[in-house]
Every structure is written in C-alpha cells, then in structure tokens.
C-alpha cells in the first residue's frame, strides 16, 4: 500500500507563470533572433515538455504572451526548466535546426536547487544552478541564462512572474432593495383605458397573470467578461405584489462577481439585450416583463460598506427615448455590502510570510551506541541514517520558504558537556546563544559533529522543546502580522515519556503560529504516539481542554523505506498549508503587502 493514505496528494493551487527575456544572443545573420520558450518539468528523473510559448519574430527582448500554468504543491519539489531557442522554419522549436539561446532550471518554490547537472540528460544543456530565489515567495524573479557546461549566455536574462490562480479569494454579502418600481400591470391597463384599439387588443391577448395586483419584481446580476460575454452571477427571489421590494441578503464569491477585479463593470455591451443589473416583473410562464436596468462596478458598490448606502436609477432605455419627462423606472438601493476575504496559503507566502524550520533530534540511549553499525545514529559514509533522511527530506522543502536559510537545531535526552547533565532542549551546535545553523547542510554537519561529544541517555521528553519553540512563536504572535510561521520537526525512536506534559504543550501551541511534525525512527511500537495526531479524535490536555487546531502530524519512518525519497515530505507537509491558513484566519490576520521586487546588481540595468 502507498504510505500516508490519510494525506493523499492534492493540487494545492495553480500558478500562472509569465516569461520575458532581455539581451538574448543574436544568432541570425541578417535579422535578430526569433525566440521561443519551452517549459519542461522533471518527472521520474526525465525532463518532459509541458508547454511552449509563441515565436516572437526578430526580438532580443521578448515579452511572451503565452501564460504557463502549473499545479503547485507545497509538499513536493517540482523541478522546472525554461529553455529559450531561436526558431527556424516549420520544423518545430527545440530541434537541431534551432539555435539554443540559454536555459535556467528552478522549482516552483525556488529558482535553483543548487544540484549538479544530471549526466546523460537528453536535453541539450545540463544546466548549473542559477542561484537561490523563490518564485512563489518573491512573485518576480530575474536570473541569467546559461549555455552548455555552465557558460553564461552573454548578458541574457530571463524573468519569471508568478501569480496564483485563486479558486476562492473570498465572498461578498449583498443586500438590495428597490423603491417605486414601474407597475407593469397598470401600464397595460392604462393603455386599455386610453382607448387605443391596437394596444387594447394586444394587451387582452397578453394579459399578465398578476392583472389585479402589482408587479412581482426580482433582480438579476450579470458580469461582463473580457470577451464581452455576459455571465449570470445571481438571481434573487421574487417578491410578490410589491413595487418597493426588499430582497433577502445573498452571498457570491469575489471570483464569480468580478474575477477579483474591483473595477469590472456589471452592465450590457449589446443594447438589444438587457444586461447588467436587471429588474424583472416575474411571470410564471417565463415571459417576464423588463422593468429596468443599471450599471455599476464593485469599486462603486463598496461605498455601501458601513452605514452608507448606494442607489442607482433603474432605467428602461425605450421609455427614455419615447417619454419626454422620463426620469426612471424606480431606484435600486444597495443597503449593505460585507466583504469576507478567504486567503490561501500562497496569499500568505507571496505576502512575505516566512516559514521558520526547527528540528529536534532524539539522543536517548535506546537509539544505540552511535559507534555501533546497528545504532540508529550510526554515521555510514555511504548511506545516510534514518534521522538524516527524514531531516533532509522535510528540510529541503521548508528552506525554500525561509529567506535567511538559518534553521534551529536542537537535541534532547542526552548528557551534554561540560558537566554532562541531562538536557532536553540543547543546541546541537553547542551555542546556547544562537542555536541556528546555516542551511540544511549546516544542520547535518552540526548533527554529525555533535554525536561524539555527547552521551546518549534519556528519558524521551519532548514537552520542553515544544514549549521552547512556542515561546518564540508567542513573541511573533504579538506582532499581529502574518510574517513568520514555525514548523517543529521532532525525530524520535520511541514513544514520549512525558505524554501528559506533551499534550498540555501541544494544546498551548495550537493557539500559536506553529505546526509540529513527529517522525518515528526505527522499529518501535508507536501506537501510543497516534494519540498526539488529531486524525482519530480531538487531542486534549490532561485537564480536558481541546486543541484549537489540529497541528500535529505523526508518521513512522518505516512506512517510507521502500518509497521515493520525496514521499515522506509529501506526507508530513501536506497538512501544513491548511494549518497556516487556519491559524491566520482564526486571528483575522490578512497577508502582508507583497514585497517589491529588488533589483539584482550582478545583472545590471537594461540600457
């Protein structure tokens, strides 16, 4: 069976990538290059073409109209490659007839993994790393293009702009009423009383069902799309026999209302077809009578927030032409407008929220003597142990979302120098003033150098480390901004000894911007650890207080021994985006304003 069945991989979001280049190499003799961009994605070690842009004729600084769309997964490293070619003839881009102008490898979360070129790569250029940058976090990234063997493609650069396609960016609650609408019935009867035979005959044939009552109005809202098509957004209920109806408040998503564009107009472009916001007199036979219409934008409607109200004349274009003193066919009033924003994980990341990663490693005696090859802490020069595998798998994902790439690395359950007293929250770099290491590699090096200096002991107490990270998270909470979220990865070979204190610490931490991932290393019975994972029920403190949010994910590492290296990261990180959104939604903290793109001095400014 596949590991981690409780966390199936699902598309977190879709991201649009827009591409432009500057200072491309000029391969043509008579004209400038005709560039085209290919997007490739790595799948099972092979580069597969996903899509390609149009060819732009004779342009060394192209801005491509093509928008690349990729599925975005937080918990998976998604390797992308952009290749630029000078296209020739009808043979298709990327053939030997085309000139390679440069390429750049990246991931959706970062612009380069810093990994060495893949030998035997079928593509024409095994590319070196292009520097560490974050497409998702920065939204706009500019990097140099490389030719084969790591050679710069002159001054050529490629710029990638990312934008999330938000399936649900919030909703709006609207409350409308109307006043003094035209009475379609009286207009018919008025024509009969006027004694005009033609009008009377027509009216008798098409008498409305509400002949002896007032109009039965309802309201329809249409959105005009970029292709000038009109889409029905909402239709209110019918208010019977009332020329000043008050319709029930209703909710519509921002995406459906205005595609999240505040200046998008609701109105008609085709004069022969009633569009925009339209008021009808209901007819059970479907032959509704047109009362009037009005046009507006979401920007204008927002004036109705609070105590204010906005109103529009409900106009009938035919009456406006025929009647000299025509003013309107009534007015429509927006009584109230409430915006309920629903932010996504990417909204917070693109707003500058950093993911701070802390790892806590179990150094209790049950792991075995690190000098013995049977120990879980044994350092094999040819293959990393389970602790290192779990650390690297999760850490490599998290480091894409932390700008300074410094990670706290802690240990517990060991006797440490100089007095060799048992500690349950010591820095494995033995710097009590700064427990951070430079990148995942720094954590690995500190772990390896730490082992010979400590004595594995016990017990397995993790509450002190949870509380330590929680104190830092509490300081962050007081800023009242969505600026930093904390992930604590606990690697342990057995069931925790201080279960009551751990449950209490987790309940306290559930109110803070943090998540806890526990990976069980080795072959111990971890059944009791499932208590900490809220999947089977709500975790409670010893006093019975429930967690505010489910912030713990527990996984035994042995389930992933035969899985791909990235399977563990996919499983344990799959819930993090939801946990981030849940916390900031609970605190009502919106994403911060996106940081403006910073120019990179090494690239220079275009002339």
Automatic annotation (TrEMBL):
<keyword id="KW-0677">Repeat</keyword>
<dbReference type="InterPro" id="IPR035892">
    <property type="entry name" value="C2_domain_sf"/>
</dbReference>
<keyword id="KW-0472">Membrane</keyword>
<dbReference type="InterPro" id="IPR045052">
    <property type="entry name" value="Copine"/>
</dbReference>
<keyword id="KW-0539">Nucleus</keyword>
<dbReference type="GO" id="GO:0005544">
    <property type="term" value="F:calcium-dependent phospholipid binding"/>
</dbReference>
<feature type="domain" description="C2">
    <location>
        <begin position="152"/>
        <end position="313"/>
    </location>
</feature>
<dbReference type="GO" id="GO:0005737">
    <property type="term" value="C:cytoplasm"/>
</dbReference>
<keyword id="KW-0106">Calcium</keyword>
<dbReference type="InterPro" id="IPR036465">
    <property type="entry name" value="vWFA_dom_sf"/>
</dbReference>
<keyword id="KW-0479">Metal-binding</keyword>
<dbReference type="GO" id="GO:0005634">
    <property type="term" value="C:nucleus"/>
</dbReference>
<dbReference type="InterPro" id="IPR002035">
    <property type="entry name" value="VWF_A"/>
</dbReference>
<keyword id="KW-0963">Cytoplasm</keyword>
<comment type="similarity">
    <text>Belongs to the copine family.</text>
</comment>
<dbReference type="Pfam" id="PF00168">
    <property type="entry name" value="C2"/>
</dbReference>
<dbReference type="GO" id="GO:0071277">
    <property type="term" value="P:cellular response to calcium ion"/>
</dbReference>
<keyword id="KW-1003">Cell membrane</keyword>
<dbReference type="InterPro" id="IPR037768">
    <property type="entry name" value="C2B_Copine"/>
</dbReference>
<dbReference type="InterPro" id="IPR010734">
    <property type="entry name" value="Copine_C"/>
</dbReference>
<dbReference type="Pfam" id="PF07002">
    <property type="entry name" value="Copine"/>
</dbReference>
<dbReference type="GO" id="GO:0046872">
    <property type="term" value="F:metal ion binding"/>
</dbReference>
<dbReference type="InterPro" id="IPR000008">
    <property type="entry name" value="C2_dom"/>
</dbReference>
<protein>
    <submittedName>
        <fullName>CPNE7 protein</fullName>
    </submittedName>
</protein>
<feature type="domain" description="VWFA">
    <location>
        <begin position="356"/>
        <end position="555"/>
    </location>
</feature>
<dbReference type="GO" id="GO:0005886">
    <property type="term" value="C:plasma membrane"/>
</dbReference>
<feature type="domain" description="C2">
    <location>
        <begin position="1"/>
        <end position="121"/>
    </location>
</feature>
